[in-house]
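Homework help board

Subject: predicted structure for assignment chain

Our instructor gave us this sequence and asked us to write out the predicted structure in token form, then describe one feature. I got the tokens but I'm not sure how to describe them. Can anyone check?
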Amino acid sequence: MNRRAFVTGLGGLLAGPVAVCAEQVGKVPKVGFLGNPPFNQAFEQGLRALGYADRQNIAIEYMPWELGNLPFLAAELVQRKVDILVAGTTYGALAAQKATTTIPIVMVNVTDPVATGLVASLARPGGNVTGLSRITLDLVGKNLELLTEAVPGVVRGAVLSNPTHPLHAALLKSAKRAAESRRLELEPVEARAPNELDGAFTAIARQRAKALLVLADGMFWDERKRIADLALRNRLPSMFANSEHAEAGGLMSYAPSSVEPYRRAAYYVDRILKGAKPADLPVEEPTSLTWSSISRLPRRSASPSRRRCCCGRTRS
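My token output:
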């Protein structure tokens, strides 16, 4: 081999890895977003605060929010080979977990991710899922307490649940315990789909309930305006698990923000893109709750009943 051929061959060997490296450095990470469109802006705000801009140094693949079609939508994002999957609500996170065990998943606004099997513990998730949860299980009793204070003397109430929700059975038990301590007769009423809501409120009227507790659920959130209108039409004071229900015309809510966790989800995306593993990133819980009401009741915020460990936001 002559000197020129040797140098040319050596140059080719060196150019190969350099070209691959340049390609990897120039790659724009792709994030799949399986969440309700109203929260898109909050997520992008969180990313911008960390130096990311969609279609510049990060690409966001948005999926249309179809509650009954989440497994298919999650699978579609996996097929698009996203680097991270952001999944909102318990339904979305479970669909994402079923679709992939390798792609990192950042869950948002999930009810008790330990009980639903999404993570091993809040402090050490242990799999490919981490993110932000809600404290709904502990909050049911407080919501019922505030509802009975707003409707003095009420002895019969109803609780609207969705039996397809993986945690509503546990939430109903918590609500019934709280009702017994306040000498309130609480009757459960179910609605699995939007077309069952009218029948549910007919059943509530038949039971002569004088107050209503609505559990946290994706379908109930989507139908929040309709549920608020039905409650108003039936002259039924109602407590909701999301502030958006009160904003849509419901009487009141006492809950963590639904929007802020989507901004905070950007932090998890950033950490994972920089090499952190979901298994090692503690799940965060809300640090404050907000009272929302269309009535003249005072507006206030308070810390939730759960205590945090030394990191200030999580517990095992």
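Reply (TA_rk): Your tokens look well-formed. For the description, you could write something like this. Residues 1-24, 295-316 have pLDDT under 50 and may be disordered. That's the kind of observation they're looking for.
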